[in-house]
Every structure is written in C-alpha cells, then in structure tokens.
Records
---
Amino acid sequence: MKLMGVPLSPFVRKVAVIMEIKGLDYDVEPVMPGDTSEAFRALSPLGKIPVFVDGDFSLADSSAICEYLEEKYPGHSTMPQGLEERGHARFLEEFGDSKLVESASIIFIEKFGNPNLFGKEPDLERAAQAENELLPPFLDYLESQVPSEGYLFGNFTTADISIVTPIFNAAYGGYEVDASRWPRYAAFVQRVAEHPAVIKVRAMEQQMLAAR
Ligand SMILES: N[C@@H](CCC(=O)N[C@@H](CS)C(=O)NCC(=O)O)C(=O)O
C-alpha cells in the first residue's frame, strides 16, 4: 500500500493517522500539491494529494480513502456504529475538510509556507483576518460538538482527526486555539494530539520537513 503526498497536508495527515490506527503497512511517497507529472495526474485527476494506491487500485480523496479503508479493514473501526452517528461523523469530517481547512490554511500559508517553503513575503493582514474573523465561527460550532472527555463517538474516528488536522497546520504559523474562548475544543485538540497514531504521523512529518 502506498500513500502519495506529504503529511504536512492536513488531508494526507488525516489518512496516515487512519492507516496507523488500522495497523496497516504502507509507504509514503512524497508528492507535493500541484504536481504536474503525467503519472501523478493519471492517479489524481484533480491534481490533489493524497493519492492512495493498493495494488492496481487507487483513490484520490482523503474521505474516499478513509471510507475504503474502513470497509476493507473494519477490524480497528474508525467510524461510529450507529446510523445517525455515522451520518454525523461524515458531516463533521466534511466540516473539517472544507471551511475549517480553508481558514486554517491561510494562517499556515501566510505565516509558515510563504516565508519558509515558498520564498514569498507573508501577508500578515490576511493571516490576522483568518484568525480573527474566519476561524472563530467554525470554532464556536466545534465547541458545541466536542465532548469534555474522550473522543467524539467513543473510539477514535475519522471525524476526530478531521476536525483537528487543520489546526495542526495553523500551529505551524504560531496559531493556538484560545482556551479561554473555546475551552472544550482547545482541550480536545490537545487530546487528539496525544493519540499515539497522531504522535507517530506528526513525527514522520517533522522528519520529512527536516529532510527537504
Ligand atoms: N478533497 C480532497 C482535498 C485535497 C486537497 O485539497 N489537497 C491539497 C493539499 S492540502 C492539494 O493537493 N492541492 C493542490 C491543488 O489543489 O492543486 C481530499 O480530501 O483529499
């Protein structure tokens, strides 16, 4: 099994965490977002990472990959069992993958990516707007969703990592969830960060970053 991408991407990190929880044996092939090679584009029609390859089969989308992994390897389940909970977990996954990523990525790109990876000037005003205006309504919602202890649905699920992985990116830009404003969510982010699979993937991410 192969995971193409870099775990610095919130979506690649999400899939890697699920693969770790399921105890799967996989290699990471570093591919940067926007790779234009014909071989990559054949596997990723939208040109996005992650791409997952399992023998002759491949998939390019983190949610599709996590769903495939859950169905193929249900042993260490990463979805809740009840119908309504599964529906809600999918919604929270989408919440993390869409608006939360969009806002958190601005902080990551402007304060970390542009100065450190892309050789560009950071737009600090844009980062401040993301932090002060774009993110707060999404964090208000998450504050109402996360439990005061444990994970969203008991066992760790794809939804748990999905609603936190964008914050790990914002943290590269020095962002921290304000625990006085969002105490439950700030504690939840910390809890997810302490999960052994998350620790392992983030260590791999650091190694790949140091080696670039
Ligand atoms: N819906 C996709 C989104 C993946 C995504 O947007 N990946 C970014 C990197 S974080 C990317 O490859 N962007 C390159 C591009 O859009 O050209 C998923 O869940 O996998």
Note: Residues 9-11, 33-34, 47-50, 61-63, 97 surround glutathione (CB under 6 Å).
---
Amino acid sequence: MKIGIVGLGISGLRTAMLLEKAGFNVQLFEARGRVGGRLQTIDEGNGVHYEAGGEWIDSDHFRCLNLLAEFELEGIQPEPWPKKLHYKGSISSEAHIWNDALEDDLRVEAAARELCRDLSTPPWKNCHKAAWDKRTLADFLNEHTQTDRGLWYVTAKYRSDEGDDPGEIGLLGWLAGYIHYLERDGDVMSAYRVPGGFSGLCEKMLGSLRAEPLLGSALKRISQDPLGVSLEFERSRARVDHVILTLPPPALERVAFDPALPVAKRCAIEACKMGRTIKILWEFDTAWWEGEEWGGSVLTDGPLQQTWVEACEAPVLCAYICGERAMEWTRMGDPVNAGVYELAKLHKEAPRHFKRGWAHLWPNDPYAQGGFSHLSPGYVLEHMEHIAPPVKRIHFAGEHTAMWTGFIEGALESAERVVQEILKTEA
Ligand SMILES: Cc1cc2nc3c(=O)[nH]c(=O)nc-3n(C[C@H](O)[C@H](O)[C@H](O)COP(=O)(O)OP(=O)(O)OC[C@H]3O[C@@H](n4cnc5c(N)ncnc54)[C@H](O)[C@@H]3O)c2cc1C
C-alpha cells in the first residue's frame, strides 16, 4: 500500500518513520524547501544559533523526550535564573512575586482545579458545560483575580502558554489543556531544549527514512475515488492509496477537495484558530543582563511581553510576543530596532551593546499563518471532534488534531494516532 504524506513538519516526519517501520511504502511532499515546518533552527554564524519557532519541551512531554533518546540526544536544561517581572514601573521576580499577584495566581489555580474535577474526556463530551465553552479565558481570569497586578500576571502567564490573548481562548478548551497541568509533579514547564536545535533533529528523522522527500511541492488539489487518491501540486501530480495531510488549518483551507469535505469537517478546519505569535532576537557584544542577578528572562507589561536568553555561544536575547501586540509588531517597518528601543527601557545599556537582530513573524508565514492552534470560544463542543477523523482515504494529522493541542508533543501524538488509523484500514 502506498501512503502519501503531505507536510514534513515533525508530525509528518514522525508519521513517515512509524509507517516505514510498519512496512509501508511512503511518498513525502513538502511545500517549503526544507523539512521541520514550524521547527526551524537558524544559524547566523559566529556562535549565533536560535529557534525561530518551537523551542521548549516540558518534562512530561514523553513522546518528545523519547524521540530525542531514539537519536541518542538528551534535552538541555536551561540555567535556573529567576524570571524578572516588570509591572507599571515596579520590579519583582517570579521567585519572590508580589503577594497580591501571588494570591490572585493561587485563586485562579484553585478555581481551575475545581472546574477540572467535573470534566469528562474527550473534551467534547462535556455537553452540559456549554456555558464554559462560550466563555473566554479572559472572563475567567477577571472573575478570579482581585488586583490589577494579579490580573496582569495571570494574563501574561497564560497568554504565553496559549500563544494568543486570553480573550481569544475558550474556557472549556483551556481547561481541557489545564488537566495536563494537574497531573504534573513540580515545575515541568519549558524544562528542556534540543541540543543542536530542532532542525537538526528533523534532519536526523528525515535521514532515518528510506523515502526521499519532494521539497517545493505545495498541494493545490486533492481528489479521491473508491480506489485511491490523486494529489495535484504546483508542478507535479501523484497517485496514492491513502494520504495523510499534516497542513496547519489555514493551509488546509486553501486546498481544493473533490468531492468537497463534509460540512462538519470544513467548519472545524475554518474554526480552528492559530495563535498570533512572533519572535524577535538580538545579538549583543556582551551578556549585559548577567550582572543583574537575573538571566535575561523578563515578563513585562511593555510591548515586548517576554524575553529569554537563547542557548548559544553568543549573547542572544529572544522576545516572544503573542496576540494583538504581536500583530502591532508585524506592521512595524523595523521590528528589530524598535525592539532595541524597548529593551533600553528595561536596561539603558542595551542599545550600546546591540550588534544585529532578526524577526520571525509567524502570522505572515504562508504555510502556517500563525504560531500554533488554540481552542477558541465555542470550538470544543461544536467542532473539536470533527477535526481529526479521516474522510475515507484522506487522513489528518498535525498538532491541531491532538489532545496536546499546540505542542510538539501534540504533533507526535497525532502521528501515532494516524498510523493506527492506517493499520486499521489494512486489517
Ligand atoms: C514561535 C513559535 C514558538 C513555539 N514554541 C513552542 C514550544 O516552545 N514548545 C512546543 O511544544 N511547541 C511550540 N510551538 C509549536 C510547535 O512548533 C508546533 O506545534 C509543531 O512544530 C507543529 O508541527 P506540525 O507537524 O503539526 O506542523 P508544521 O510544523 O506546521 O508542519 C506542517 C508542514 O506542512 C507544510 N505545508 C503547509 N501547506 C502545505 C501545502 N499546501 N503543501 C505541502 N506542504 C504544506 C508546512 O510547510 C509544514 O512543513 C511553537 C511554534 C511557534 C511558531
């Protein structure tokens, strides 16, 4: 049986590895001139390399950690620097956070824990929770905080997790993800990075395959009949028995299907939203943040929202910006220099040490149109169950089809699920 895999991000690569291992013949197609999709390690020379896309592995992302182990890699743990907090001119750190913000944070956690006790899995089985599905995470955070500073802190924290503003996130969908947090033991967020970067891992995955990828192949049209599936790319065609599409929802929307996809599937694809996420990076001639008893890691109420230090030999700081603020940065002529101006507000020495910088504006990326998917208000009960199932010979994978929505772990989870689907068609 010949299986086409379209989209060679980490979900497509993992699917190919698992299918080849199970004895299938796979054909690989990718629109970009490289594999990895939203995982992209950039090497700018002189010790500067960084992750333009996905970067962190939580310590309970076991599929991801096991994949590293398969290639004899071990996650790198960041230095345990306290995160600095800047709010309306006052400064604190996550380790010694203002009491009022801490109390609000604990109130939100307790309320979320309470709601999660009553949740069924999968998330769309919570029909009696329609009111939660219609509410936003922002409503919930407002309700359970008592101070401006506390509200700012929890908003900043969950915005960074979700990759968009809490007003865009449905409460039921957020709780479905929060359940994973409750099963956690200790501080496991952003625990590891990949040594050498995610692009190296993706290249190793590709290198482990017998099949050769057809890069530069953007899928335009797909038609299926009782005997197989025909794929039409910009400059070529292919015929396979089954196809697995790992394209993010905005890219899927641009593919023509013949016959048309069922209405529920089309609506689920349209309703699945991508977070508005960007990264801006700066190289400096010295790590000016180190003299300050903090590690360059900041959460701020200013336009940069959040910064951290990249794991490379050169001193490189990364700002990770999400939501409406990120869109403001995408409209700027020179986000790198505008960012240096903002950094000067956090540390007046920053401009003096600045060497060069780069901006990665994911909402403008033609094959992703955003950072990663999130569950918007109303999505869970109306659409979520329709996003993953196959339509006859067409199968769907990618982080947006997983329970670990948004994460690299979810992309890998989707690969395992779709391989089981293919195995069942053979049985
Ligand atoms: C800035 C940023 C930060 C992130 N941080 C983290 C993090 O710290 N931790 C974490 O777990 N996750 C993070 N993520 C999310 C993570 O990167 C993704 O969840 C994961 O990489 C998605 O993999 P995927 O295979 O599902 O999709 P993709 O990587 O998007 O792969 C899909 C592939 O399909 C291709 N494609 C699209 N259209 C077509 C077409 N028409 N024809 C052929 N091919 C097509 C694309 O080029 C792409 O290669 C981040 C993402 C971004 C952008």
Note: The pocket of flavin-adenine dinucleotide is lined by residues 6-12, 29-32, 37-39, 53-56, 218-219, 246-248, 251, 277, 279, 362, 367-368, 371-372, 398-399, 406-409, 411 (CB under 6 Å).
